[in-house]
Amino acid sequence: DYGSGAKSFDIKSENKCFTSSAAFDNDGNVYIRCLERIESEDSEEDTDYLIKYDASGKELYRLDLTKEATKDSSEEGSDVMAITWHEKYGLICHTTKGIYTYDEKNGFEKLVELKASGTISDLVKVSDNQLLIYYINESEADMVNLDTKEVVKNPEGLGSESQYTFFTDGGSNLYVSPLDGSGVYKYDMKKS
């Protein structure tokens, strides 16, 4: 057998499901934030879901985020913008009110107070205790220390005149690629 052993499965939906964020836990389960559009002859209705599937594609739960927003949300409907998995904290959800954890037993619990700067394009775990949140419409970023709850606005070296995409190598190395296609750069975490 060659390759990574990656698995795939089809997500069954009677309506159009637009995936905006996904995360994978250590057991091979996948969490998907899905906007489902229900179209009828005279209207369209959107429902925002957080769905958990096991590694075989079996749906384990489906949370209607339009009804189950975080406890301190003053807004109707979902305020979950992006999700990622963290070994220590579990499923992490970035919302308009801050960084939350979510599990089936306890629901949403606030981890870090943080006001969203705009639309998130990247939510990346960059070390055991740090997340990078990048807001594409503002070309701004937050580096969040999950243990100390410290937030560093616009880490050094990320210019507001460019837009970026971020990724890691699976370890603690963060890479940055400007959307202008000028290259891929390793970001020095020691300076931020």
How is the largest sheet built, in terms of strand order? 1-2-3-4
List segments where confidence is low: pLDDT < 50 over at least 5 consecutive residues. none
Please count the helical segments: 0
Give the end-to-end Cα distance, rounded to a whole number of Å.
Answer: 42 Å
Strand count, sense and barrel status of the largest sheet are: 4 strands, antiparallel
Radius of gyration: 17 Å
- DSSP E strands, number: 15
Which H/E pattern describes the elements?
EEEEEEEEEEEEEEE
Mean pLDDT: 76
Instruction: Note the overall shape.
Output: globular
Strand content: over 45%
Structural class determined from secondary elements: mainly beta
Helix content: under 10%
Overview of the structural elements:
24% of the residues are buried. The model has no long low-confidence stretch (mean pLDDT 76). Helix content is 0%, strand content 49%. The strands form 4 sheets. The chain has a 4-stranded antiparallel sheet with strand order 1-2-3-4, with no helix packed on it. A 4-stranded antiparallel sheet has the order 5-6-7-8, with no helix packed on it. The protein has a 4-stranded antiparallel sheet with strand order 9-10-11-12, with no helix packed on it. It has strands at residues 16-24, 30-39, 44-53, 59-64, 80-86, 90-95, 98-103, 107-113, 120-125, 130-135, 140-145, 151-153, 164-168, 174-178, 185-187. With 192 residues, it is mainly β.
Jot down its keywords.
192 residues, mainly beta, four-stranded antiparallel beta sheet, 49% strand, globular
Write the layout of secondary structure elements.
Blueprint: E1 16-24, E2 30-39, E3 44-53, E4 59-64, E5 80-86, E6 90-95, E7 98-103, E8 107-113, E9 120-125, E10 130-135, E11 140-145, E12 151-153, E13 164-168, E14 174-178, E15 185-187
Antiparallel strand pairs: 1-2, 2-3, 3-4, 5-6, 6-7, 7-8, 9-10, 10-11, 11-12, 13-14, 14-15
